[in-house]
User: Which sequence fits this backbone?
């Protein structure tokens, strides 16, 4: 059981000027599952490896349980890690793989066998204990990698995209199992993924990184409803938020084509204090709807998902065509080529030219 | 028709490769065969069908006073080859680790230095070697060959092992680190089992080169303490061609290397690291 803290931690790879991770500040309380998410090159894996001790921390510090581990080698950090490619020892059986860390700690053989057995039971690996990794399926290997981590009862679990090598169906299933397992064991976990759906569904809190800089760390719901900047707004949510550049015309508020956008009080107030100019407005597909009044447009694509559908509509906005994605009911009658009207039922996110959120 | 044509082509290609292989193998086959013949069947009137006899083998292995005997030469070779090969591996494994897995500063230069020691022709180095060996009282000893064979094979072994070591997935070593393995545990429990085929291949080459080495042995250790290649030439007689006898000696000199190759091959099965990642 442990809490983890990054304090102004930076990593600059030799031969580069731009930090892979820049002044990261992050507090992870005991028992939390924190997800680091971002596009490739955002520094999320580097941040995880800094905590593992596999990556040198050039500036700042990393703490586990208020103990400064910045210079502690990985062997002495009492952490367990699940690698993207599992990194199972090919020459050892499943049992030996899972018991390897305990063997290094000098745990006696009977206790070792018992703990491996227990982990194998949790992960349904009992029939495979004597097999070598090459004789296992991808999902089984993934579970062995998990088993190797939980056998140790470490202070912190580190997971580097552990599900990305599984097929889609297994990934969704394992995602749930993993979240459940983490909750049961209550071990502080840092989880890296590039998949924002995985991040949103698993994380107690989610930290969004871009170019080595932490953008926002919040509970998934907050991240979704109050993105602090344009990047987070565009990154979180699938399909993505409709982001439209809009010129503000003084007190008239913001208009999407001919449609006046409903702003909440705070946003309207903050916006009024600012100069007229180009702002970016964000509206999630589910906050737009096909209606009997609103802005007119033509349907170009209908994505039918069964329970719901996403209608892509081209409207006219500030003298040019603009594509909007609108969520509609499943089994919609709308077809390509239809002329429809779209209304907005808010909330509307507004971002300043520098990308920062305006309003609460 | 198309299928028949393809079959004919592959049949002809197969035939061709057999023919080429036989041409290459025939001299060896003839040597082995000659070893079982009477001198007359081997020399004046070469025969394919004959009464096989072990007499030539008895002749070459029998001890003659004052001459290098088979048993002695064999044991000298075994010592020189096995000790030097073990030394080479013991030294090359840490070197390969330092060059491949946690590269030291200027590791490319280090690697180049190793291979540069092979640039100098051995003939050019033999005089200083001989003088040093004489000064250290090492002439005509097993020790001088052990030292030189180690030095001779080390660069090659470092190069080979380095490339095998760099194929070890980085994550495996990181996983071992996180699992709490110290450097020695990482090497013995994780790295070495994965590079075992490479280790076997390297050892085999060292054995072959050391076993077949002639020049250093003949210069520094020509008399009683010498090795199998020297013993083979001691069967070349000035009194005429004893082909059958020489063939028997050559066959005996070849056998251990073939055996070593066969043993190493069993270990050299690729794909041991399968299942490690993904």
Assistant:
């Amino acid at each position: 059981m442990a809490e983890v803290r990054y304090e102004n931690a930076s990593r600059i790879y030799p031969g580069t000027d731009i930090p892979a991770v820049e002044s990261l500040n992050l507090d992870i309380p005991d028992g939390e599952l924190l997800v680091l998410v971002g596009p490739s090159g955002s520094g999320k894996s580097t941040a995880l490896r800094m905590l593992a001790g596999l990556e040198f921390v050039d500036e700042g510090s990393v703490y586990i349980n208020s103990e400064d581990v910045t210079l502690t080698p990985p062997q002495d950090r009492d952490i367990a890690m699940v690698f993207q490619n599992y990194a199972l020892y090919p020459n050892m059986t499943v049992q030996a793989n899972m018991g390897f860390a305990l063997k290094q700690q000098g745990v006696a053989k009977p206790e070792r066998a018992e703990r491996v057995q227990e982990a194998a039971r949790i992960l349904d690996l009992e029939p495979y204990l004597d097999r070598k990794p090459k004789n296992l399926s991808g999902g089984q290997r993934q579970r062995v990698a998990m088993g190797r981590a939980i056998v140790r009862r470490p202070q912190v679990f580190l997971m580097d995209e552990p599900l990305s090598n599984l097929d889609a169906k297994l990934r969704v299933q394992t995602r749930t199992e993993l979240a459940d397992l983490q909750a049961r064991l209550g071990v502080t976990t840092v989880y890296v993924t590039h998949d924002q759906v995985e991040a949103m569904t698993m994380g107690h809190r989610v930290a969004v990184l871009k170019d080595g800089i932490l953008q926002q760390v919040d509970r998934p719901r907050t991240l979704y409803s109050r993105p602090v900047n344009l990047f987070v707004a565009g990154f979180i949510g699938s399909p993505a938020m409709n982001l439209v550049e809009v010129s503000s015309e003084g007190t008239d508020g913001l208009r999407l084509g001919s449609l006046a956008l409903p702003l909440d009080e705070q946003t309207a107030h903050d916006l009024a204090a600012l100069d007229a100019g180009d702002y970016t407005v964000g509206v999630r597909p589910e906050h737009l709807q096909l209606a009997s009044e609103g802005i007119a447009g033509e349907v170009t694509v209908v994505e039918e998902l069964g329970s719901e559908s996403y209608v892509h509509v081209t409207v006219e906005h500030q003298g040019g065509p603009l594509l909007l994605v609108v969520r509609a009911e499943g089994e919609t009658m709308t077809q390509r080529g239809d002329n429809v009207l779209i209304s907005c039922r808010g909330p509307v996110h507004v971002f300043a030219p520098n990308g920062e959120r305006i309003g609460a | 028709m198309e299928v028949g044509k393809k079959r004919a082509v592959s049949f002809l290609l197969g035939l061709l490769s057999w023919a080429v292989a036989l041409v290459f193998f025939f001299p060896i086959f003839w040597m082995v065969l000659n070893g079982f013949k009477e001198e007359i069947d081997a020399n004046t009137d070469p025969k394919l069908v004959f009464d096989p006899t072990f007499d030539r083998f008895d002749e070459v292995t029998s001890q003659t006073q004052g001459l290098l005997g088979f048993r002695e030469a064999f044991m000298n070779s075994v010592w020189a080859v096995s000790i030097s090969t073990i030394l080479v591996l013991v030294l090359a494994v840490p070197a390969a680790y330092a060059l491949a897995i946690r590269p030291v500063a200027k590791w490319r230069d280090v690697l180049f230095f190793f291979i540069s020691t092979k640039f100098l022709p051995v003939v050019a180095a033999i005089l200083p070697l001989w003088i040093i060996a004489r000064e250290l009282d090492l002439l005509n000893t097993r020790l001088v060959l052990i030292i030189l064979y180690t030095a001779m094979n080390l660069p090659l072994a470092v190069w080979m092992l380095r490339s095998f070591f760099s194929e070890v997935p980085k994550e495996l070593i990181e996983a071992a680190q996180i699992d709490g393995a110290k450097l020695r545990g990482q090497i013995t429990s994780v790295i070495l089992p994965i590079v075992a085929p490479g280790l076997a291949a390297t050892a085999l080459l060292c054995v072959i080169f050391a076993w077949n080495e002639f020049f250093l042995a003949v210069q520094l250790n020509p008399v009683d303490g010498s090795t199998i290649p020297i013993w083979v030439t001691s069967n070349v007689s000035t009194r005429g061609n004893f082909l059958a006898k020489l063939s028997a000696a050559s066959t005996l000199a070849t056998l251990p290397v073939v055996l070593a190759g066969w043993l190493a091959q069993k270990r050299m099965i690729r794909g041991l690291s399968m299942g490690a990642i993904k």
Q: What stands out?
A: Chain B touches chain A through 24 residues (CB under 8 Å). The CA atoms of residues 138 and 144 of chain B lie 6 Å apart.
